[in-house]
Design goal:
The protein has 21 helices and 25 strands. It is α/β, with parallel strands linked by helices and about 700 residues long. Among the domains are: about 200 residues, Glycoside hydrolase family 3 C-terminal domain (Rossmann fold, 3-Layer(aba) Sandwich), CATH 3.40.50; about 120 residues, Immunoglobulins (Immunoglobulin-like). The chain is globular, with a radius of gyration of 26 Å.
C-alpha cells in the first residue's frame, strides 16, 4: 500500500468520527471505536535489541554492542528478525484479545542520539559517538524493522529522541540543552536526517528536554522548519513518555494541561505517550485547538496503521509464533555477540590453548549474571547463556576443571560491604590460587547505568559518577593481581570503563558489552579460539582523569574522537583480533577535491590475509578537509566495510565516500565545500594525530 492510498483511507475513516472519537486516538493507549470496526491499539512497544517487555523474544546484544560490529548488513538482518518476532507476537496476542502495552508493531526504536558523554546511562541504547556510524546503523535498523511483505510494513520504526538529547538523566524533565548551530547540524542532526530521508522512518519521538529554550516535543524549528519542512517527513510524531506534562510541571513554558495540549498539538506532536492528551477535548472546548488540529494528527496515525495492514487481511497475519526465539535467530544473536566483542589487549595468551590448563577459575560478579547479558529495554531470552555457563560448557568438553566464585558484589562501597570488605574477595582469591588461569568477569549492569527512574539505580538517576569499576570490583582485581596468576578480564558494560590500571598486569582484556542471551556461548568460543573477537569501539574509552566537560555542556569541544584534545585510553575504532590483515594497495577514482565534493569518491582497497586462519576486520576510512577553519579538529569517519579473508586470500574492496564527507559546517549551521583539499586515511583503526600515511586530494 502506498502512503497516498493509506492517507486517503485514513482521511475517510477519520471523517466518520466524532470529535470525541478522533481525540481519543491521539493517546498511546488508543481505545476501540466499535461502531467503525476499529480495535483498541497500544502504540508503545520497544525493540532496541529484540522485542522488549512483552515476554519471550530473541535477545540480541545491546545497541552499543551492535554498533561495535561495524556491520550494517548484519544489523539489517537482525532488524528483520525482530520485526518478524514482533508481528508474530502481535498476531497471537490479538487472537487472544490482548492488545495491551508492548503488544503492538509500532516499535519505538532506534535510539540515534549521540553518545557524547561516557557517563550517560542511556548511552548503551545508542550506536555510539559518531554521526556517520550512527546514521548507517540507524538506517539499517529502520529498513529492517520496516521491511515489506505483501505490500505492507512488517513493523514501524521510530527515531528517537529528537533532538539534542544525551543526559543528564537526573535533569531531563527540566533541562535546556543549549547547542550551537554548528554542533546541531554537524553532530546532533545527521543521523535523524538520514533515517528520515534515506530510510523513510515512519515515526520520530521528541525528547524530554528543551533545546535552545523550546521543549523538544513542541519545537517550531526542529519539528516544523527542519523535520517536516527541509526534510519532508510525512510520518507521525510521538512525545516521549509524559514529556508533554513536563511543559507545565517542569519547563514552565505553559501554565496548565490544556495549554500544553495546545502547544504540542499545533506544533505537530500527533501522539502522546502519557496522560496530557486526556485534556484534548477540554482544550477543544476552550477554543485552544480546532477540529482540524485533531483530525490532522489522527489521519497521520491511521495512515501508519493502514501502512502496517492492521485493517486488512494479509500474509503478515500468517507469520507463525514459531519464529519467536527460533534457532535461526539465536544463531544470529550468537554471530552478533562474536562480532561485537572488542579485544582491548592480548599479550598472546588468547586464544587459550585447551591443553595448557588443568584448572581455570572464573570469578567476578558478572560471571553468572543474567543482567550482565541483557542491558536495558530487553525481552526475556528463550535461554540465557551466562559467561560462566559458556566457559563451563567448554571446560567440561576439554576436560578442564573449573572453580567459580562471585568474588565481590557488583557494587559496594568500602563502608557498607558486609560482613567485611573482603566478604567475597577472599573466596575469589582462593579460587585463583588453586587454578592455572583466572578469568575475571567485571563491569556494570542496568542497576548501575540506565534510564532515570527505570530501575533502582545505585547511581544518581542512571548516569555514572566516573569511569572506574565499582570499589568492590577493584578490591577483587587487586587480590587477583597479588596471586601472580595469569588472568583475563571480561568487562560487561554499555559504556566506557577505564581499565588502564590493569592493562599492564592483565594478560588480555575483552570488552563484551551486554552481549545478549547467547553472549556466554560467544565469549567462551572467543576465549578458546573457536571464534575470534571482531568488534571495534564505537565510542572513545577515556582515562578517568581526562578533563571531561560537565554533562550539562552540550558543546562538542573536547568530546568524542573528532574533538578530543587529550590521548584516550583506547580510541574510537580500536579493536584487536586473532591474526592481522594487510592493506596492499589503495586507489581513488577522483583526485580533484572540487569534483569529490560534488560527486563523492569510490575508493579501492586491496587487502591480503597472510595468516594460516581466516581473519575478519573492518576497513575504516577517515577524512579531514584542509584549507578551512570549519573542519573538526581531528578527522571524521566517512566509510567503513567489514571484510573477511581466508588464509592466503587477497581481495579488492570498493568503498564509497559521499560528497558531504568533503564538506564542513560553519558557525551558522550551513554545510558547504569550503576547503581546498582533503586528506584520506585508510586502515583498520582511526589514524594517530601525527599519521603521515594518507591520500591527499
Amino acid at each position: 500500500m502506498t502512503r497516498q492510498e493509506a492517507t486517503q483511507k485514513a482521511t475517510e475513516l477519520v471523517s466518520k468520527m466524532t470529535v470525541e472519537e478522533a481525540a481519543s486516538q491521539l493517546k498511546y493507549d488508543s481505545p476501540a471505536i466499535e461502531r467503525l470496526g476499529i480495535p483498541e491499539y497500544n502504540w508503545w512497544n520497544e525493540a532496541l535489541h529484540g522485542v522488549a517487555r512483552a515476554g519471550t523474544a530473541t535477545c540480541f546484544p545491546q545497541a552499543i554492542a551492535l554498533a561495535a560490529t561495524f556491520d550494517d548488513d548484519l544489523l539489517l538482518e537482525i532488524a528483520k528478525s525482530i520485526s518478524l518476532e514482533a508481528r508474530a507476537k502481535y498476531n497471537e496476542f490479538s487472537k487472544h484479545g490482548d492488545r495491551s502495552i508492548y503488544k503492538g508493531v509500532t516499535m519505538w526504536t532506534p535510539n540515534i542520539n549521540i553518545f557524547r558523554d561516557p557517563r550517560w546511562g542511556r548511552g548503551q541504547e545508542t550506536y555510539g559517538e559518531d554521526p556517520y556510524l550512527t546514521s548507517v546503523m540507524g538506517c539499517a535498523m529502520v529498513e529492517g524493522l520496516q521491511q515489506e511483505k505483501d505490500g505492507y510494513m512488517m513493523a514501524a520504526a521510530c527515531a528517537k529522541h529528537f533532538a539534542v538529547h544525551s543526559g543528564p538523566e537526573e535533569l531531563r524533565h527540566e533541562f535546556d540543552a543549549e547547542v550551537s548551530q554548528k554542533d546541531l547540524w554537524e553532530t546532533y542532526l545527521p543521523a535523524f536526517e538520514a533515517c528520515v530521508k534515506k530510510a523513510g522512518v515512519e515515526a520520530v519521538m521528541g525528547a524530554y528536554n528543551r533545546t535552545n529554550s523550546e521543549p523538544c516535543c513542541a519545537h517550531k524549528y526542529l519539528m516544523d522548519e527542519i523535520l517536516r519542512g527541509k526534510w519532508g517527513f510525512e510520518g507521525h510524531f510521538v512525545s516521549d513518555c509524559w514529556a508533554i506534562r513536563d511543559f507545565h510541571e517542569h519547563h514552565h513554558v505553559t501554565n496548565c494541561p490544556e495549554e500544553s495540549v495546545e502547544l504540542a498539538l499545533k506544533r505537530g506532536c500527533d501522539l502522546n505517550c502519557g496522560c496530557t492528551y486526556e485534556h484534548v477535548l477540554e482544550a477543544y472546548r476552550q477554543g485552544k485547538v480546532t477540529r482540524e488540529d485533531i483530525d490532522r494528527s489522527a489521519i497521520r496515525l491511521f495512515t501508519t496503521r493502514y501502512l502496517l495492514g492492521l485493517f486488512d487481511n494479509s500474509e503478515l497475519d500468517k507469520i507463525p509464533y514459531s519464529v519467536v526465539g527460533c534457532s535461526a535467530h539465536l544463531e544470529l544473536a550468537y554471530k552478533a555477540a562474536v562480532e561485537s566483542c572488542v579485544l582491548l589487549k592480548n599479550d598472546g595468551i588468547l586464544p587459550l590453548k585447551k591443553d595448557a590448563y588443568k584448572t581455570i577459575a572464573v570469578v567476578g560478579p558478572n560471571a553468572d549474571s543474567k543482567d550482565a547479558l541483557i542491558g536495558n529495554y530487553y525481552g526475556t531470552p528463550p535461554r540465557t547463556v551466562t559467561l560462566l555457563d559458556g566457559i563451563s560448557a567448554l571446560c567440561r568438553e576439554y576436560g578442564i576443571e573449573l572453580h567459580y566464585s562471585e568474588g565481590s558484589h557488583l557494587y559496594d562501597t568500602l563502608e557498607n560491604a558486609k560482613p567485611s570488605q573482603k566478604y567475597r574477595v577472599t573466596e575469589g582469591r582462593i579460587a585463583a590460587e588453586n587454578s592455572d588461569l583466572v578469568i575475571v568477569c567485571t563491569g556494570l549492569d542496568a542497576t548501575l547505568e540506565g534510564e532515570q527512574g527505570d530501575r533502582g539505580n545505585y547511581f544518581a538517576s542512571g548516569d555514572k559518577p566516573d569511569l572506574l569499576l565499582p570499589p568492590s570490583q577493584r578490591l577483587l582485581l587487586d587480590a587477583i593481581i597479588e596471586t601472580k596468576k595469569p588472568f583475563v578480564i571480561l568487562n560487561a558494560s554499555g559504556s566506557a570503563v577505564d581499565l588502564s590500571a590493569y592493562e599492564e598486569k592483565a594478560n588480555a582484556i575483552i570488552q563484551v558489552w551486554y552481549p545478549g542471551g547467547e553472549g556466554g556461548r560467544a565469549v567462551a568460543d572467543i576465549l578458546f579460539g573457536n571464534a575470534a573477537p571482531q568488534g571495534k569501539l564505537p565510542i572513545t574509552f577515556y582515562y578517568n582523569d581526562n578533563d571531561l566537560p560537565p554533562m550539562t555542556d552540550y558543546s562538542m569541544k573536547r568530546r568524542t574522537y573528532r574533538y578530543i584534545e587529550q590521548k584516550p585510553w583506547k580510541p574510537f575504532g580500536f579493536g584487536l583480533t586473532y591474526g592481522r590483515l594487510e592493506i596492499l594497495k589503495t586507489a581513488v577514482n577522483i583526485k580533484d577535491y572540487k569534483t569529490a565534493s560534488e560527486r563523492g569518491i569510490t575508493l579501492t582497497v586491496k587487502c591480503a590475509n597472510k595468516n594460516d586462519t581466516s581473519v575478519s576486520d573492518v576497513i575504516q576510512v577517515y577524512v579531514r578537509v584542509t584549507g578551512t577553519d570549519n573542519e573538526v579538529p581531528n578527522h571524521k569517519l566517512t566509510a567503513f566495510k567489514r571484510i573477511s579473508l581466508e588464509p592466503a586470500q587477497t581481495a579488492e574492496y570498493a568503498l564509497y565516500i559521499p560528497p558531504y564527507a568533503f564538506s564542513t559546517v560553519d558557525s551558522s549551521g550551513e554545510r558547504k565545500a569550503d576547503g581546498d583539499g582533503a586528506k584520506i586515511y585508510i586502515g583498520f583503526s582511526q589514524p594517530d594525530k601525527d599519521d603521515s600515511d594518507y591520500i591527499e586530494i
